[in-house]
Design goal:
CATH topology of the largest domain: Rossmann fold
Strand order of the largest sheet: 3-4-2-5-12-1-13
Oligomer: single chain
Amino acid sequence: MLLRRANELLTRTFRSPRSPQRRWKQLAHRIHAAALKLESKSDTDMRQVAAALRFRARSGEPLGSLLPEAFAAVVDASRRHLRLTHYPVQILGGIALHHGCIAEMQTGEGKTLVATLPVFLNGLRGFPIHVATANDYLAHRDANWMRPVYESLGLTVSAITGDMAPAERKAAYDCDITYGTAKEFGFDFLRDRLALRASGQSESPLFADSLTTSTILSLSSHSANDQQNSTAQRPTVQRQPLHFALIDEADSLLIDEARTPLIISGESGDHRTKEALFRWCATAAEKFNIGEHVSRDDDSGQFDLTPAGYRLVRSLPRPPLLNELPMSDITDGVVRASYVADSLKLDEHYVVKDGKVYIVDEYSGRVAEGRKWRNGVHQAVEARERIEITPLTTHSARITVQELFGQYERVSGMTGTAATAAHEFLGVYGLPVFRIPTRKPAKRKSLPVKILGTSAARWQAVAAEVKQQHGAGRPVLVGTRTIEQSQRLSALLADHGIEHELLNARNHAREAEIVAEAGQPSRVTVATNMAGRGTDIALSGDSEERGGLHVVCGELHAAARIDRQLIGRCARQGDPGSYRQFLSLEDDILKEGLDKLDLSQLQRRGEHSGNNLTTTLPHFVNAQRTVERRHEQDRELLLAHARHRANQLVQLGQNPWLDAAQD
């Protein structure tokens, strides 16, 4: 139903009498034809063409009128320097991106190449152009890969990565085009606000509003010497104002990570006393039982002590250091430790590596570098794992992803899975979704869903499926929801004598290597959903002849988009491929999306149905939709709160990212 509503929205948006869809398709074919006529020109001629486009753009000519010529120049440059061709559907994607859409393009359809079209066009005026990618590796790869196209047309390009010094960052931002992650762009934005305040300059979010278009155009046309002097004098690393952001994997950044603020912190309080509190609470929590000593609200997720719990806290012996603390700090610490013991699981929500706790992103399956739980939860996890406890921090600056991209004058994005979130993209960000057709007809086969009564039975069935496809010589990719599940399945496959590769947050450094070989005949890869983003599994000739990649979905995720990402690994660019989903009545999605009564009735029904459980599939779909709606409501509430907070602070003459960092 949700997908149907999204499709209806797309139909209303792009197939009305005033729809640009047909016009854009015709324009894409004209651009493709125009690019062919440029093949006879020399490289010198093309540099002159690009210089003329820059002059016209900086003289105030609308970018819309320059689009056909600029896109044709990029198509030609890609052919000359990368030996890659922009097909009409890719040009159509570029047109949609320039017009502020979320372009939904299937896996393998060349989103990285498509990005060069609107990025070059918007870079002609000299404004800062930021391309947000999923991780540092992709930012570095894409910038270097596309560099010959941009540089042949007179634009400079660089990438921001987490290990760069401030001087290197400033140099990277001084390029016409900067690739990087949303996290790096966001933290640099916050550090710049702090630097402006420290230098006594205005850090107001509204300072760019007073700049007219003509003023900005004159600023962008300064000489190289003027720009070098400006770079040396400014206290910020980013150039202002922020102009155009193109977001790769837009649903991941704008939806999945929308509830996670970016925070710059500083140390706070007496660490020795706090460390003693976390250690004692982690041990004491083992004596507290959910229901008897600690109450848990299943709807809100809130934990609290019962009267019996308060009595138990007071009766337990405590180290002398804790006598310095009020009883409220101690009871809060016990509640926090009880929450951690009950709700945060090793190898699902976090991993421990090199003596440190790293959060595992629920949607990407990757380690969330630099991210920590707030309000002492991270330290409570460290105490539970008996490793070094990091100091508590205060927040110096914070911004959400929604707020960050709201600072750009223009935003667009691309992803393989946007249609089911079309309502949210349009309602929250004002970005309509435009679905780009595939260049070749899809050959993906959907095999019947298998539903088992228990999780153990499901993984046995998955192992049998892998063994069958492996025996036929096909490459197989198995997706799991958690690290723990991937490791359990890995052990099961080993028992069956099936050689395989394991890809999860514990060995993410080998991701590119593992994915590069995943399309070889008889190759089996077990992965968390980190294999669904920013990767492309290419088939060998033998694999294609044997039916292509077979994808096994081990469990439904909290969002249907994540399942679609995994399925999208197979049958790319007209290749053959297939997929099958395996579910069980013990799956987390049922616990998260159904009430206790419905869940117990469903499980009792499963006990009397043997292996014939396919009729329970609607319950899985409904549970997933319930979870999706709940998360969407959470994001809407967060955005409403952020906007209200920002408006109040601006009215008081304060900065919404610095003066409300403790909220």
